[in-house]
Amino acid sequence: MDEKRHIYSQEHIESLNDLDRCFKQLQETVFAEDANKQWIFRGYKISSPSFETRLQRAICRFGLNASDEQDVESRRSLQDKILKEGLEGADRVHSVARIEGGLLRRFKRQCHHYTMAVPDDDNIMEWLALMQHYGAPTRLLDWTYSFWVAVYFAVEDAEKECAVWALDSSWVRQRVRAKLGKISNLIDSEYGGTDPNVTSKETFRTAFQSNKKFVFPINPYRLNERLVIQQGLFLCPGDVSSSFEANLEALAQDNGGKKDFSGSLIKYTIKDDSQLRKQITQRLQRMNMNRATLFPGLDGFSQSLE
């Protein structure tokens, strides 16, 4: 998200008191409209990330060999070029949607070698969620309903300034309803959506393969253990050929082209202070929030020993 445009609110956390204050503010209902806010969160170990999906990053690396060490603006420029113009050379004819379809097909054909608990063939959203769970490149972006889980992921491996983003999912639903009523009628349970977990291939095609720019909070009907423990959900972009940020910002754009999240997107920047990160980690540990609890299994327990 471009810092220069200042289309979101910002808060700075320099102490545990600041952290508690920000959390309290998120829970407060000052005005009548605040009562309807439903915050979701995402933590980053750096303070100036782009909202990138794994699919975006994979295409960027494949298309122009962009390294993770490049600054955020350079990588965003490269990604926009690839997503808008396609890949170079012989691969140029392949759209991002076709790449996504090819990855999904390969995963579906080989997944049974590793597990027999596979989704129904037509449940594309559940297949994407399974791919995301195991680290495959997908259009999905992980978020959580828990402020503290997002804080954990922000500070866990941070070595400098890090950040937690908060997005009002009810604002997202309202904007999708206003701009894309037909899609809202299909996938939004709050407005009587007929298929809110997107279990049908036809629903997926109508909502997420129609080249409409938007994002929407989604979870598959069957939740894996990690999603439950981490209070997780996904934001799914409607137009996979555009960047995740372009999809998100499309909801904030008015008829005049101006983008404004109206207080519905907040960035909490956590100061570059090793002592503060240690204090936050100790606080989270007392809340029983660590690798062993957030990543159930022997791998999560082993990593927690570090």
> Strand order of the main beta sheet, please?
1-7-4-2
Strand percentage lies at 5-15%
Unreliable stretches covering 5 or more consecutive residues:
64-70, 86-94
State the separation between the terminal residues, measured CA to CA. 32 Å
The number of E-state strands comes to 7
What structural category arises from helix and sheet content? alpha+beta
Number of helical segments?
A: 14
What share of residues is helical?
40-55%
Largest sheet: 4 strands, mixed
Structural write-up:
This protein is α+β, with helices and mostly antiparallel strands and 306 residues long. 44% of the residues lie in helices and 12% in strands. The protein is built from 14 helices and 7 strands. The chain has helices spanning 16-27, 54-64, 72-85, 96-110, 124-133, 147-155, 169-179, 181-187, 201-208, 225-229, 244-252, 274-286, 291-294, 298-304; strands spanning 9-13, 39-44, 141-144, 162-168, 215-218, 232-237, 265-270. The strands form 2 sheets. A 4-stranded mixed β-sheet has the order 1-7-4-2. The chain has a 3-stranded antiparallel β-sheet with strand order 3-6-5. Helix 2 packs across helix 3 (72-85), helix 6 (147-155) crosses helix 12 and helix 7 packs across helix 8 (181-187). The longest helix has 15 residues, at 96-110. The chain is globular, with a radius of gyration of 19 Å. It starts with 8 loop residues before the first strand and ends with a helix. The model is unreliable at 64-70 and 86-94 (pLDDT under 50).
